[in-house]
Inverse folding.
């Protein structure tokens, strides 16, 4: 036998019978039953929600200073251009940003914003539309698609992300229900980029946006 055969034989032995031959071979049904048991009684292991409903909890989580997130509630998509312009002005940024091809962002030019479709490594600001928000952690989920490049969420100094209130999920595991039918390239982002690798000091924007601004779209 080759060394490769020896390694695989040892792995096979460990997975099916254990070192001393005491572990039975587990079927797919056995494994499925154990997985189901881990999900039983979720209410006993979930943390207390941060608010009385998913949207309130999401807003409360985003307000945590540790995340480095700001948030504006926007009354409908028609008011989004004005909210984006206000953020850019408030942060002394030019009214120019990288915009994904999502058709719901087409109206930004009406607010005097100059859009462009590619995000440079030194981009001041970019905007994306999140597929989901997660109330438990204050996270947003982006799926890579022709109209939603993930680089817009990774390269700019300021990242603006649009989330619809109707798409805020209560718990992290709720996303798994939808993830199975979606592309493999999914990005879950919780707050601004930060690191303490540099001499133990907390630094924002070390390997991603230093500022994240959520635009929460209501009905």
């Amino acid at each position: 036998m080759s060394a490769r055969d020896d390694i695989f034989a040892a792995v096979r032995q460990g997975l099916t019978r254990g070192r001393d031959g005491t572990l039975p071979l587990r079927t797919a049904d056995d494994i499925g039953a154990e997985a189901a048991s881990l999900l039983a009684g979720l209410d006993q292991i979930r943390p207390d929600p941060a608010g009385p409903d998913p949207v309130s909890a999401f807003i409360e989580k985003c307000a945590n200073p540790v995340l480095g997130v700001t948030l504006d509630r926007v009354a409908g998509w028609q008011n989004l251009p004005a909210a984006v312009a206000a953020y850019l002005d408030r942060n002394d940024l030019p009214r120019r940003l990288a915009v994904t091809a999502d058709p719901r962002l087409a109206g930004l030019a009406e607010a005097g914003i100059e859009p462009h479709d590619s995000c440079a490594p030194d981009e001041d600001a970019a905007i994306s539309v999140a597929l989901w928000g997660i109330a438990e952690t204050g996270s947003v989920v982006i799926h890579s698609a022709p109209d939603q490049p993930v680089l817009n969420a990774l390269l700019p100094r300021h990242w603006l992300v649009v989330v619809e209130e109707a798409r805020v999920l209560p718990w992290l595991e709720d996303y798994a229900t939808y993830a199975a039918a979606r592309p493999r390239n999914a990005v879950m982002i919780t707050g601004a980029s930060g690191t303490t690798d540099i001499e133990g000091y907390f630094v924002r924007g070390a390997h991603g946006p230093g500022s994240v601004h959520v635009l929460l779209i209501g009905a």
Remarks:
- The CA atoms of residues 5 and 11 lie 10 Å apart.
- The first strand starts at residue 69 and ends at 74.
